Amino acid sequence: MQKKFDPKTFQLGYLALGTPDIDRTKDHYLKLLGMTEVSRGDDGSVYLSIGYNHHDLVLRPTKQKALLHVGFQLRPHISVNDLAREARDLGFAADVKTDSQPGLGELVEVEAPGGLPIQFYSAMEASSTPGFKQTGASPMRLGHFAVISPEGDKLISFFRDFLGFWYTDDIGGIANFFTCNREHHVINIVKVPESRIHHIAFELRESSCHPIAADAMRAAGVNLLWGPARHTAGHNLASYHHDPDKVMIEFYTDMDTFIPELGMCEPRPWHDHLPMKPRSWGPHEVNVWGLEFGYNLAAG
Ligand SMILES: [Fe+2]
Fold first, then answer.
1. Which of 19, 135, 199, 257 could join 25 in a cystine, given CB atoms 3.0 to 4.6 angstroms apart?
2. What pLDDT does 2 receive?
């Protein structure tokens, strides 16, 4: 059952990826996504900004590609210490850190089920950020991510029951969509017995930017894996490509707007279901236009 309280967080802030070739991977995000390097850590990490936040993406040198951690911003009435205490009360390890990374004064890192470190913070520096570039796809923001977890049910419970996220849809019970704001999904938890990132999604300015992004990818020799086309769950117009480490990146626009007070998405002419309430889509109901995936999206 959905608990009757607002989510403790209101947006996804950043992701940290481990990469075996940080220069090559960084180049992709700088040149093809128009991000800017704003800071460098003692461990070789680089902090990349889309334009406003101090960072939206962290890359750190590792032997193999990895999802290192994710960051969510807390609602103003919940402090880092509140979150730490409530997490510990439920038996989760929670470590409050001060000045552990540039741009963030204080955060608490909680080990979520499946070993996913999630960082919660109240404020991120934005005073010295670089501004938006108009290079490559130039997304506006990081919107959501999908994670494959062998502890899917426990991770779902963490987001739904502890953090208060709203369930908005699932596909075949495998891909499970949750939100903490008015976008249809902020996290997609893929229940498969593996542990890795499935994809990271950046919102483009508007739908006419999809071909601009695709042309920029093509000019750099990067093929799209699928799309642009319209999904069922979330109804976002989406395209996918691989970064140099074969981490799947989604560009999207036109995501459904979830109305938690009504438990439904704002009606749209392209909805086959009115009202568009959370539902379990069939495993092959991935696309509203009947396109076949040339790529196995479930496999990431
Ligand atoms: Fe997505």
1. 19
2. 45
